[in-house]
Structures are given as structure tokens and as C-alpha cells.
Amino acid sequence: MDPLEMISSPTATRPMLGMTILVVEDSLFASEAMRLLCLRSGARIRRADCLRSARRHLEVYRPSAVIIDMGLPDGSGAELIEQLSHSSPRVAVVAAVSGDPGAEAAARKAGADCFMAKPMTSLAIFQRTLLSHMPPEYRMTGPRPLSDERVQPDPVAYKDDMAHAAELLREAEGDEVLAYLGQFLRGVANCAGDTALSAAADRMDRARAGEAQLRPELSRLAGMLQERVGERLAI
């Protein structure tokens, strides 16, 4: 453990005091949930929104744990998971997170120590998942109460994600961008419980595969994104 991290000792209510967590996540809404979970747990947080940014962070410092979204704008999170799982010295915990249940197998194969399913809002599950894989010096001995608290990310972050998705859709050139956009929207919609948007992303993907006409689906999706950017969201 970094000597500087020993200055702060974990407590029953803040069991991650002294830890620094790098969250590699492209969604502002999902990142806000992680920020609140870390804050309530006592951990410091740094964020990267893509593989390239994450690697720049890791050149400068070594966090206690890294939480990596499986779908990122410049590649799969599995790439970074595999890199970190074979690095020396190794980050104590390499965790994967995704709204796609099928992503867990790929994350485990790449070397992830644990997997968290989106939406991740439970403080108890977040703490238990990470701390159970941390070295003994990071863990408190003896029983401690588990919080039943759930974090609620700021809806403004969701609105920002919708604005970003709308911009991607306007400038989309080629199937690769649309494939990423569908993945991004499903992940964000899953975190926010926006089933209508998730269904629209699925319809776009089916149209991309030739099951329907693509242009009408893109037009409908653009309208839904603009509605969400302009609304006062109550999530």
C-alpha cells in the first residue's frame, strides 16, 4: 500500500478511506453514480472516458482499484482489463462493469477480478464487491454494518449524455459509430431506467443488421434524444 494512503484508516461507515479508484466510463450519468458510491465509501475517484485517457492516467499513478466499462468509444474495456491483469506491479483490483449481462464472460476471460452489473447504485454491493478482492491491509477486521443506501445520480448528467448522443448521431459516418452509439445508449438507458430509449437503440441495431429500414429509425431516435435534452428530467 502507498504510504500516503495509510494516513487515512478505514472506518465502519467509510471502509474505503485511503483508496483511490480510477473509473473508466464514457457515460456521465454512470460516472456520477460511481462518484457518489466512492464518496459515500470514503474513496478518492479519478475518471477517464476512454481507453486512451485511462492509459495516460495509469502512466502517472497507480490507483488502488480500476473499474472499467466494457464498451468504450475507442475499443473494448476487455483490452485494458487484459493489459492491467498482466502488468507488474499489478493494480490490486481490476473490476469490469456493464449493462450487458453477456459482457461478464468476456470480462472474466480478459482477467477481471470481479464484475458489476449496471445500474450499480447499491452502496453495500459496491463495497462488498471491491473490498472482497482487496489485499488484507485494505480490509477492516470484524463485523461492520452494511448500508442499504442507494445513490441517485443527478439527472443533469443524463441530459448531458443525451446531448452527447445527439451530437454523435448528427455526425455519424459509417456503421462503426452507430454500433458504438447503440451500445452507449443501451448502457445509459439501463442506468436511468429509460426503457423506451433502450428499445429505440435495439430497433436501430436491428435496422443496421438489415431487419428494417435504417433512416426512419435514426430519425425517430434523433427525435427522442432531442426530447430528452429539452425536458426537465424526473428520473
UniProtKB/TrEMBL annotation:
Checking InterPro entries in the record gives: Bact_response_regulator, CheY-like_superfamily, Sig_transdc_resp-reg_receiver
Q: Which GO terms describe its biological process?
A: phosphorelay signal transduction system
Taking the record's annotation, the residue ranges forming a coiled coil are none
* Residue ranges of domain Response regulatory in the record: 20-133
CDD domains, A to Z: REC (cd00156)
- PANTHER family registered for this protein in UniProt: CHEMOTAXIS TWO-COMPONENT RESPONSE REGULATOR, STRESS RESPONSE REGULATOR PROTEIN 1
* Name of the molecule in the record: Response regulator
Lineage, highest ranks first = Bacteria, Pseudomonadati, Pseudomonadota, Alphaproteobacteria, Rhodobacterales
